[in-house]
Automatic annotation (TrEMBL):
It comes from Toxoplasma gondii RUB. This is Trypsin domain-containing protein. Residues 106-251 form the Protease Do-like PDZ domain. Keywords: Hydrolase, Protease, Serine protease, Signal. One of its GO terms (biological process) is proteolysis. One of its GO terms (molecular function) is serine-type endopeptidase activity. The keyword Nucleus does not apply. SUPFAM superfamilies: PDZ domain-like (SSF50156). Residues 1-18 form the signal peptide.
């Protein structure tokens, strides 16, 4: 029988562990995590911190008890060295790495008193975060939020430092946004053909654009196209009507 467990580690590794009779571990590495320098996808982890990992993913604990091997990592601090013994291509290896902060794509904390946001011609963009999910869907957001957002919240890691999962949160009503009011909390993938890395990056792309039209490619093959000049002219009226002081937060 195959038993699958998803584990997030403070070393910057997400494990999709298939607990098989021969103890096979398939690693998904955090792109910005320190473990990526020594671990590879497909490595079989045999020991961690000097303790042998059993076929059920546990290590020896007190008084003959056993506990999931991630407990060892939970006892370490950022900067500590973690030693591992692994099997790669039928050869045993010993490696070590410095424990680092987990680079989550969807941060667990953010300041909702000063949330990041960007408004472009009535389109409201925000970065996805756990506090945002709670504010949108309640404390039980795990059972109410869209699966596509929960997947990024639970399994997403940054592919480069500072990466954000940018959402088109909602659309403010105006003539320039007619036909797009149904869009709500969908990922922004590209602006005029350029992949969006962060909310600030999107703001810079819009500000520096000289195109006649602004095209936003979204998740699920949704597309928003605004006439650039019309969107610029409409923005002050949209902000005034919705009593919004600025088109973007101070840090964008």
């Amino acid at each position: 029988m195959h038993l699958h467990i998803n584990v997030s580690l403070c070393i910057g590794v997400s494990l999709d562990i298939a607990l098989l009779p021969f103890c096979s571990f398939c690693f998904q590495l955090d792109g910005g995590g320190p473990a990526k320098a020594v671990l590879q996808k497909g490595d079989i982890l045999l020991e961690i911190g000097g303790k042998r990992i059993a076929s059920d993913g546990t290590v020896a604990f007190r008084n003959g008890e056993r506990i999931l091997f991630t407990w060892i990592l939970s006892q370490m601090f950022v900067g500590d060295r973690c030693s591992v013994k692994l099997l790669r291509q039928n050869r045993e290896r010993r490696e070590s790495f410095s424990v680092g902060k987990l680079n989550l794509l969807v941060p667990a904390n953010s300041d909702l008193r000063r949330p990041q946001y960007l408004i472009v011609g009535g389109l409201v963009f925000v970065p996805l975060s756990e506090p945002f999910l709670k504010s949108e869907y309640g404390e039980d957001f795990e059972s109410r939020a869209p699966v596509r957002l929960l997947d990024k919240w639970q399994h997403g890691f940054q592919s480069f430092p500072g990466e954000q999962f940018v959402l088109l949160s909602h659309v403010l009503a105006h003539d320039v946004t007619v036909g797009y009011e149904h869009l709500h909390n969908v990922q922004v993938q590209q602006f005029n053909g350029t992949s969006v890395k962060t909310l600030k990056h999107l703001a810079e792309l819009v500000e520096n654009s000289t195109e006649e039209y602004w095209r936003f490619d979204l998740d699920h093959d949704e597309v928003v196209v605004l006439e650039a000049d019309a969107a610029r002219r409409a923005l002050p009226h949209i902000l005034q009507r919705n009593m919004i002081r600025s088109c973007k937060s101070e840090d964008v």
